[in-house]
Amino acid sequence: MNGLRDLAGRVAIVTGGASGIGKAMAKAFRAAGAHVVIADVEAAALEMAADEIGALGVRTDVTRAEDLDRLAARVEREHGRADILCNNAGVAPKVRIQDATEQDWRWIIDVNLWGVIHGTRAFLPMLLANPAGGHIVNTASAGGFVTGPMLGTYSVTKAGVVAMSEALAWELRESGAQVGVTILAPGPVRTNLHTSLRNRPAELTDTRAVDIDLKQDTKVGGEQRWITADSVGPIVIDAIRRNALYATTHDFIADLVQMRMERILADFRHPLPATQEAE
């Protein structure tokens, strides 16, 4: 299918839309003439962002399926349809795999992966029913393709988003659906992701995770240049218009992915011991 070239009058929903990349996407959609609904768990930030952008703000906890159902129902009442869904809400604390508690795992998976699952389940029927077609943008990360120490839990969830999105794109294409999918894989972008623990539920007290220190942690971004969150909005708009499956924010990520694939292929092509045919 072709991408959505003209976004004027379209209805775009962005989770995690009160700040960072989510807010940047919402602003870009509004600039392109779309109607925008932003969802976020932080009520005060949501209200401020909605007023600034000229969007409808709906408080939503993406870890709760019923919240996404209510969000979809609200969009249906207010606009009668959905054209673009951006599953963007996410958290990124750091913790070693050997130290991560069960609650650490459950929280980050609930937000980063289940949030995408809940959003897709709630809105995909609306997108499929839209005669004008639609598009889903799932925010993964460069960490969904390559990973490193202390960010393993984060990368697990983002790799899950990549796999889910690739499978969904394949299924939609095979069925002839007019719904595209883009996997957004940001690199070093200045957001408030480094304060993720501010939104961790108070009852989840068993944790070894800490917030990333963007000034001190050289493993996050390394020597690569940081860009503003607002820089990401046009990247997403371009990807939707091209119906691109993958979109990223930094050229160097392609080099990292290539190096990883070369390591994988080298081991996969290593001569195997003799195998036996199964009957």
Give, in spatial order, the strands making up the sheet with the most strands: 3-2-1-4-5-6-9
Give the strand content. Answer: 5-15%
How would you name the CATH homologous superfamily? NAD(P)-binding Rossmann-like Domain
**What top-tier CATH class fits best?**
Alpha Beta
Largest sheet: 7 strands, parallel
Shape: globular
Number of helices: 7
Q: Alpha-carbon distance between the termini? A: 42 Å
Under CATH, the topology can be stated as Rossmann fold
Number of domains: 1
Low-confidence stretches: none
Helical amount: 40-55%
Average pLDDT across residues? 93
CATH architecture verdict: 3-Layer(aba) Sandwich
Order of helices and strands: EHEHEHEHEHEEEHEH
> Based on helices, strands and strand pairing, what is the structural class?
alpha/beta
Rg computed from alpha carbons, rounded to a whole number of angstroms:
19 Å
The number of E-state strands comes to 9
What does this structure look like?
By secondary structure, the protein is of the alpha/beta class. It has a single domain, classed as 3-Layer(aba) Sandwich (Rossmann fold), CATH 3.40.50. Helices cover 42% and strands 14% of the residues. α1 crosses α6, α3 runs parallel beside α4 and α4 runs parallel beside α5. The protein is globular, with a radius of gyration of 19 Å. The protein starts with 10 loop residues before the first strand and ends in an 11-residue tail after the last helix.
